[in-house]
Amino acid sequence: MTIALWTAFVGGLVSFLAPCVLPIIPGFLAYLAGSSTTAPKRRDIFLSSVFFVLGFSVVFALIGVVLNTVLVGVASSLQIWLSRFGGTLIIFFGLYLTGLLKISYFDREYKFRVSQKIGSRPVTSFLFGLAFAAGWTPCVGPVLGVILGLAASAPGTAFILLLAYSLGLGLPFILVGLFTAQASVLIERYAGVLSIVNKVFGAILILLGILVFTGTLAQVANFDFVSNVILK
Q1: What is the CA radius of gyration of the chain?
Q2: Residue 54 predicted with pLDDT over 90
Q3: What single-letter DSSP state applies at residue 192?
Q4: Phi first, then psi: what are they for 26, rounded to 5°?
């Protein structure tokens, strides 16, 4: 379970670095700046960032609750096939992230058109987060697909996995809200290494998908698999 949680968290970080998410960061910063003629206070930007993250976290949490309700009642005989389906799904998206599989639908760029009439109030930031979760699902779809694959292999974990994913995706947004100027410079400077990050994470997902498909993920997580190999 620990491996799955860390995968979900890192998946959130990778989603933030996705080519279809990074282009909206300038718009996000402009939104947080609002329409005031004076420079916004860092505290106000931070609060807006937090409410933005809460907005999309609520959506992902609701998805997790629904999935938990559906998956917990699955019979054990069907669980084997769900694990195989989940493992196949993880391998599929792992191949996509490594670049070995091309899917144009996930390569689209989505950009916000920010209205200067909107201030960086907590309520509007929260609504903005809701819109992000609803509108950018195709963009973060590959990693979300991995989370769903993990949830299918372990009924009842969907909520906590999506919560970990939201934390991984939300933390960078909050940091951007705290350090707006520095974040813009870093995003521009290190944009070239993002493809490497995606490929490394994709390779890890392929291995994870194989473990889920074969039903050995729990053994690895508990170190039983490693100890058995060493002792025998």
Answers
A1: 19
A2: yes
A3: G
A4: -55, -40
DSSP helix/strand/coil, 20: coil
Place of tokens 């299918």: 152
139 and 58 in contact (C-beta within 8 Å)?
A: no
Residue where the block lists tokens 């947080």: 32
pTM (two decimals): 0.76
> Cα–Cα distances in Å, from 11 out to 6, 112, 204?
8, 23, 11
Contact 181, 175 (CB under 8 A): no
Greatest alpha-carbon span in the chain? 71
Q: Helices H, strands E: what count in the chain? A: 11, 0
Condensed to tens digits (0 to 9), the pLDDT of residues 128-141 reads 888 777 766 556 66
- pLDDT recorded at residue 19: 67
Q: Which two tokens stand for residue 103?
A: 């899917």
Whether the predicted pLDDT of 115 surpasses 80 = no
Amino acid 67 reads: L
